[in-house]
Amino acid sequence: MDFAYNDEQKDIIKVVRDLVQKEIVPYAAEMDETGKLHEGLLEKLAAQGLLGVAIPEEFGGAGLDAITIAGVYEELAKGCGGVATTVAANALASYPVILAGNDDQKKRYFDVINEDNLVAFALTEPGTGSDAGSVSTRATKTEDGKGYLLNGTKCFITNGGLAEIFVVFANTRKTGGIRGLTPFIVRKGTPGFTIGKEENKMGIRASNTTELIFDNCFVPVEDRLGREGSGFRIAMATLDAARPFVGAVSVGIAEAAFRACCEYAKVRVQFGKPIASFQMVQAMIADMAMKVEGARLLVHRACWMKDQGMDFSREAAIAKCNASDVAMQVTTDAVQVMGGYGYIKEYPVEKYMRDAKIMQIYEGTNQIQRLVIANKTLY
Questions:
Q1: Model's pTM, two decimal places?
Q2: Which residues are catalytic?
Q3: Domains of the chain as residue ranges with CATH
């Protein structure tokens, strides 16, 4: 396994790094305060092709390999976890179409993204978090067989209020369960489909998170992805594909917090000398360095295995679980190193700490990841 970036990858990541320094870092605190992307930022992200990094080239996307995508998301997260989440959600919502869509569906769906739009992945419901099989949104086939009527509510949907098109998971069986789970492509503005409340979040506040409400929303049969009942397999494969990228965002947040507290420790003077010279602080910084480097390697390993066409489900769970735990640990320690200054909004580390927490929760809680890891290891 060689994780060294080639020249093309280096060029891509440099472009993203420059964009982050110019267009994200100066506005990160403002976006955190307002809960919205800075005006014009989405267009600048789209202009660099960042909304379609996972889309195959034949459908107008960048078609980047997983390691490069991870590098891109890490750089975005160093600037703002909310911006990174917004962009990464486009890849998450692309994978069901990549995995199960026919050529017509792929063209129609990816054309929307290629027109510089956001998309959204809608699985979670008020009563359905870790248990994806308990989805209660119903998809009832119409009598003429030409489509389905969707009824139900989704919650915590990233890009929900901004997306132009959605992949929505609903159950086609009256009895529910995983055997009826089926994904559908739904356009914004479809009659019977409305955007519910926008969530006021603790972290990743630049990203948009909303409810979705379906009330007899008609979806033509041509917009069903795969056969009826294939949704659980599609959802699990999608989450496997995206989990290393949650790890990459986590690494970016951790790296940013680590660098900020190192710079602070070198200039903060106590007892007549910089606190970086104190062994207790040095031990904390050493531990942070080891955790960040290890987390990045596990993310790249999972991405490499994906790129090689290997079974990477276990490694995806390891990468996501470890990196998000590391992000929480490192950001917490960064606040500790900086003391009272780490706790106030004048410095960015308290934001990194708030942004890090969701990484342990979404796209499968870390408790679920540990179950996946154990089952894949033992059986």
A1: 0.96
A2: 363
A3: 7-114 (1.10.540.10), 119-228 (2.40.110.10), 232-378 (1.20.140.10)
